[in-house]
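Tokens in:
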């Protein structure tokens, strides 16, 4: 037999023998169940400081053969999955393995034990397991001189328990927030509507940079986490650490993050993104920035409140252009005050803001062309209580889609006047849905406006009642309105008019309006009901009783004279003239009901006994 014939025969024998050996690739178990962790898995694993916690995964298989190997996967449905841990022998019909917690938590997937060689195209229904939500806290630190151990970034990756929704949140100088809505089928999420929103980058332009995205008193400034790497500003001595404090409530799916930062600049250079060699050290600008993030229970929304304040007692000029980045170069943006609808901006545009006094405003994004019917299309809204001065973009090459709008604010801050703004971000699968959410967000950011037009503040009123008029309006509608605690119905345009009783002396009239989001606003005026002499009816009284009545009415008894007078009495045809009762008042001046200043004297005439 030739050498080639012998080789072919040997290969055939090996193939036959191999088909009978246990543990080869074509052996397969038919079903499996991951019994732990419990369904759903919602834990937050803490990877900060380089920690490497593990999660124990146990379960059973059926239909296995000796030597069968299983592979744990984090299944995103379709053909998309991540492998978790190493292959495990399932010959016994059960398995238990410790896997890196970071490979499971926050992935928004289903844990399944599948056969070795699984491609995602196979039927996965026989392989069951828990949904993995939860998330992970992580951070990074500077390694080596001169800032060894200083935390340079921190982040949370979160699957908040809504099938498919996904949120990540990084420090203010790193990436900010990303929000992707559920795709609607399986644990996959749609496009990230917002993909790095609410952060400051170390350069202000992708084409011709002049500064960072934060400036203090005209200097290029750095918030924590913005420095870049050891070769640039992050490598300068004195780097301020990232202070990022996350907290997660698995019962509600709400993530809260508080962050505080020292705003710094380079001592040796104001150039954008300088090399560490030209940034001799980091200097304190005397400005601090704090931010508070809280995600919604719906898993597709978040609110950022950010405050810039003074730490050195001085006055500082700040210029901020935090980014509100979309999904990709295919992203479209709609700035309603421009009236252009969704536009794919390219190159390096700069757009005007809506103008001062415009109140809460919203802008919108679509992850790609809304008319293209992309199966993963998502929409996003950003609503802010402080309208942007302008909307420049982080410049990219001409003709390239630009996904990097910047929200520009320029302000002066003092110890008594910090600068704060709030962003409410949301993501969804429909344009109508995010616009409805934006309208509600705008309402929540704007309290009702209440104005009292009359009486004027400080008025002095003689009457025992005051007619109060004014208006009460709200961008989402006034849901309740009271004046001094009494409900009042609003008319057209929010107008109101009501009568309020007054006590003598100081009075305060308070009008309060509320909206359906819980915001309330009060307006008040102070007025004085001044004391008056309201002349009482004295005729027929004795002088002693008249004196008491006058004192009670803030009047005084004046001149008392006497006269003899008569009056007619009896029925018609039989009338006779008789005198008034002796000692009773028969006339007074001023007359009863007259309103005079306090202490006015009232003269009276008393009937005498004889003419």
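Residues out:
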């Amino acid at each position: 037999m030739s050498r080639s014939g012998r080789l072919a025969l040997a290969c055939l024998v090996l193939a036959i023998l191999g088909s009978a050996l246990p543990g080869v690739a074509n052996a397969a178990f038919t079903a499996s169940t991951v019994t732990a962790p419990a369904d759903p898995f919602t834990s937050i694993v803490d990877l900060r400081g380089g920690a490497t916690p593990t999660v124990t995964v146990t379960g059973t298989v059926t239909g296995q053969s000796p030597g069968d190997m299983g592979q744990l996967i984090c299944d995103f449905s379709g053909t998309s999955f991540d492998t978790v841990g190493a292959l495990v022998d399932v010959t016994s019909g059960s398995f238990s393995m410790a896997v890196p917690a970071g490979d499971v938590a926050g992935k928004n997937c289903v844990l399944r034990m599948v056969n070795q060689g699984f491609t995602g195209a196979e039927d996965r229904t026989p392989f069951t397991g828990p949904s993995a939500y939860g998330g992970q806290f992580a951070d990074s630190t500077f390694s080596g001189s001169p800032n060894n151990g200083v935390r340079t970034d921190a982040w949370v990756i979160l699957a908040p328990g809504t099938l498919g929704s996904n949120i990540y949140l990084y420090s203010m100088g790193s990436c900010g927030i990303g929000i992707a809505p559920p795709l609607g089928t399986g644990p996959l999420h749609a496009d990230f509507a917002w993909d790095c929103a609410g952060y400051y980058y170390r350069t202000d332009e992708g084409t011709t940079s002049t500064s960072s995205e934060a400036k203090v008193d005209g200097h290029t400034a750095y918030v924590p986490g913005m420095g870049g790497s050891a070769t640039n500003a992050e490598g300068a001595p004195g780097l301020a650490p990232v202070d990022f404090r996350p907290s997660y409530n698995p019962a509600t799916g709400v993530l809260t993050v508080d962050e505080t930062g020292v705003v710094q600049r380079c001592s040796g250079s104001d150039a954008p993104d300088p090399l560490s060699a030209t940034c001799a050290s980091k200097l304190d600008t005397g400005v601090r920035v704090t931010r508070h993030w809280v995600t919604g229970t719906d898993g597709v929304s978040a609110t950022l409140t950010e405050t810039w304040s003074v730490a050195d007692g001085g006055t500082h000029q700040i210029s901020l252009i935090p980014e509100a980045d979309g999904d990709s170069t295919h992203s479209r943006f709609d700035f309603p005050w421009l009236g252009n609808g969704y536009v794919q901006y390219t190159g390096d545009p700069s757009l005007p803001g809506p103008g001062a006094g415009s109140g809460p405003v919203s802008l919108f994004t679509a992850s790609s062309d809304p008319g293209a019917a992309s199966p993963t299309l998502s929409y996003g809204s950003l609503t802010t209580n402080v309208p942007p001065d302008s909307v420049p973009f982080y410049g990219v090459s001409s003709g390239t889609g630009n996904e990097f709008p910047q929200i520009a604010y320029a302000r002066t801050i003092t110890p008594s006047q910090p600068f704060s703004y709030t962003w409410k971000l949301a993501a969804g699968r429909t344009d109508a849905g995010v616009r409805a959410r934006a309208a509600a967000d705008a309402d929540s950011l704007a309290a009702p406006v209440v104005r009292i037009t009359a009486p004027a503040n400080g008025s002095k009123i003689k009457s025992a009642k005051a007619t109060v008029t004014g208006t009460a309006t709200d961008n989402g509608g006034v849901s309740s309105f009271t004046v001094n605690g009494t409900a009042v119905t609003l008319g057209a345009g929010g107008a109101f008019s009501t009568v309020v009783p007054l006590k003598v002396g100081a009075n305060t009239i308070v009008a309060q309006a509320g909206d359906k989001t819980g915001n309330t606003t009060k307006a008040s005026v102070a007025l004085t009901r001044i004391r008056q002499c309201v002349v009482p009816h004295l005729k027929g009284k004795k002088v002693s009783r008249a004196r008491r009545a006058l004192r009670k009415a803030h009047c005084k008894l004046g001149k008392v004279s006497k006269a003899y007078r008569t009056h007619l009495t009896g029925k018609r045809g039989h009338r006779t003239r008789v005198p008034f009762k002796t000692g009773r008042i028969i006339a007074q001046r001023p007359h009863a009901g007259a309103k005079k200043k306090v202490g006015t004297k009232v003269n009276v005439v008393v009937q005498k006994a004889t003419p």
